[in-house]
């Protein structure tokens, strides 16, 4: 089950934080480290701060994009230090980690962390099903990256030691299946003219929030994409008929 859990660090600035995060992971039995465009890696500072967790650094997967880092994952918890008006469901670590552990029984999952200075972007947060916020002093709530990894890894360890909910007998949609649906949805909404009175980026963020709550299954994604295909085809036929009936318009 632990091999299904990947810790993803996005655009890390300081190599020491990567090493310290690897150390935090190893103390809790985690080994799958993914790095999205780290500024410095590999780096001697990372090795020094790993303090014996060199194997995790040696096997770290360096990715060029968040899509690459989350490929195959069916459930992602993203960390945020502040609440946002476009945020999806926000939970405490004690609430979020059992959900991650539940899916990790049979599927790849991800725990996503942002940069040291600004955290995750709104676009990156939109890739997750759940956001997690570590309760802290409201006047000084920013944790060091490695400290945040340690807190979440500990909470995950606690969740794994408890009785996990039984998985439903369904196949959750993978990250790429969900992203394929969102690309299809956005293209269809453009084609049928829905965005003429809407702000596309803002609307798609809200739709992502809606579907994140739904936790789409593979069969459901296929059904939704089938509806989109029929919608596009029907709209195309209507447009063609209108052009035939109004050739000079």
Strand and helix order: EHEHHEHEEHEHEHHHH
Radius of gyration: 21 Å
Low-confidence stretches: none
CATH architecture of the largest domain: 3-Layer(aba) Sandwich
CATH class of the largest domain reads: Alpha Beta
Shape: elongated
CATH fold field value of the largest domain: Alpha/beta knot
Structural class: alpha/beta
Q: How many beta strands in the DSSP annotation?
A: 7
CATH superfamily of the largest domain: SPOUT methyltransferase, trefoil knot domain
Strand and helix layout:
Layout (H helix, E strand, L loop, with lengths): L4 E6 L4 H13 L4 E5 L7 H7 L3 H5 L2 E3 L2 H4 L5 E5 L10 E2 L1 H12 L4 E5 L8 H4 L4 E3 L12 H17 L13 H17 L8 H15 L3 H28 L4
Parallel strand pairs: 1-2, 1-6, 2-3, 4-6, 4-7, 5-7
Helix pairs in contact: 1-2, 1-7, 5-7, 8-10
Describe this entry's structure for a reader:
With 249 residues, the protein is an alpha/beta fold. It folds into two domains: 2-161, SPOUT methyltransferase, trefoil knot domain (Alpha/beta knot), CATH 3.40.1280.10; 175-245, Helicase, Ruva Protein, domain 3 (Orthogonal Bundle). It has helices at 15-27, 44-50, 54-58, 66-69, 93-104, 122-125, 145-161, 175-191, 200-214, 218-245; strands spanning 5-10, 32-36, 61-63, 75-79, 90-91, 109-113, 130-132. Strands 3-2-1-6-4-7-5 form a seven-stranded parallel β-sheet. Helix 1 (15-27) links the parallel strand 1 (5-10) and strand 2. Helix 1 runs parallel beside helix 2 and helix 5 (93-104) packs across helix 7 (145-161). The longest helix has 28 residues, at 218-245. It starts with a strand and ends with a helix. The mean pLDDT is 92.
């Amino acid at each position: 089950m632990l091999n299904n859990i990947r810790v993803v660090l996005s655009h890390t600035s300081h190599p020491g934080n990567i090493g310290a995060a690897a150390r935090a992971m190893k103390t809790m039995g985690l080994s799958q480290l993914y790095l999205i465009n780290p500024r410095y890696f590999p780096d001697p500072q990372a090795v020094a701060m790993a303090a014996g967790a060199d194997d995790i650094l040696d096997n770290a997967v360096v990715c060029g994009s968040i899509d690459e880092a989350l490929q195959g994952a069916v459930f992602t918890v993203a960390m945020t230090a502040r609440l946002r008006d476009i945020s999806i469901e926000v939970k405490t670590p004690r609430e979020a980690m059992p959900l991650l552990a539940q899916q990790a029984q049979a599927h790849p999952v991800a725990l996503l962390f942002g940069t040291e200075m600004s955290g995750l972007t709104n676009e990156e947060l939109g890739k997750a099903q759940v956001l997690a916020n570590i309760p802290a002093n409201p006047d000084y709530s920013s944790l060091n990256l490695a400290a945040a990894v340690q807190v979440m890894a500990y909470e995950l360890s606690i969740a794994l030691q408890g009785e996990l909910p039984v998985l439903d007998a369904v196949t959750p949609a993978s990250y790429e299946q969900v992203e394929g649906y969102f690309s299809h949805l956005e293209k269809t909404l453009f084609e049928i003219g829905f965005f003429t009175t809407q702000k596309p980026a803002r609307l798609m963020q809200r739709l992502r929030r809606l579907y994140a709550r739904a936790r789409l299954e593979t069969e459901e994604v296929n059904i939704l994409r089938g509806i989109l295909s029929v919608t596009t085809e029907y709209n195309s036929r209507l447009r063609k008929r209108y052009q035939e009936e109004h050739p000079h318009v």
